[in-house]
Amino acid sequence: MKKLIIAIDGPAGAGKSTVSKALAKKLGYTYIDTGATYRAVAWKALQIGVPLDDDQRLTELAETSSIVLQGEPDHLRVLIDDREVADLIRTQEVSEATSIISTISGVRQALVEQQRRMGQSGGVVLEGRDIGTQVLPHADVKFYLDANPAIRAQRRWVEERARGRALTLEQALREVEERDRRDSTRADSPLRRADDAIYIDSSGKSIEEVVDEMLEFIRRQG
């Protein structure tokens, strides 16, 4: 079977990461978490003291940083300028900074170029919010994974509590709604379903059910 480029987009909490990792393992493909590239730049900005409202310096940071993703889906290594940061980029502080810098056009343009290079050879599953529309619009198979906002908030609440963060379900819902607003209204590459993307609602479905549904569509491409 031809090594395909598979794009998975959707809002926060839809299950993209979990499903993308499972799908990549099933296919023996490389898993690329494009959100990790934004997190890596946000982490670096915080480390060196770049103000989060300085679009020019943040853009320069994204343009000059070397980001590498490697390893198995469940043990993805994230390196920025040869520094391993996979664990460091998952803090709440980095998450908040990422949400801000990801709306900056210059940052997005710089990281989209890196993401394209990561995925262009095929045999990859890329997940994010603009893969099928901006990063790799000619991907072989595109999915738009969605879920009810209340369910997405519940998932976020469980994840954050597991990380030790004191978060209420109401706060989780507000954060999901705010992230949706930012993603869908940003000037550059707003979150939207590509015209040729296959829509899948993961509400009430297990990971296995969603992956099996995707595999059925992928087999048709083979």
List keywords for this structure.
222 residues, alpha/beta, 5-stranded parallel beta sheet, 3-stranded antiparallel beta sheet, globular
Describe the protein in words.
This protein is of the alpha/beta class and 222 residues long. It has one domain (5-212): P-loop containing nucleotide triphosphate hydrolases (Rossmann fold, 3-Layer(aba) Sandwich). The protein is 51% helix and 15% strand. The chain contains 9 helices and 8 strands. It has helices at residues 16-27, 34-48, 55-64, 92-101, 105-119, 131-135, 149-162, 169-185, 207-221; strands spanning 5-9, 30-33, 67-70, 77-80, 83-84, 124-128, 141-146, 198-201. The strands form 2 sheets. It has a 5-stranded parallel beta sheet with strand order 2-6-1-7-8, sandwiched between helices. A 3-stranded antiparallel beta sheet has the order 3-4-5, covered by helices on one side. It is globular, with a radius of gyration of 17 Å. It starts with a strand and ends with a helix.
What's the quick description here?
The protein is α/β, with parallel strands linked by helices and 222 residues long. The protein contains nine helices and eight strands. Helix content is 51%, strand content 15%.
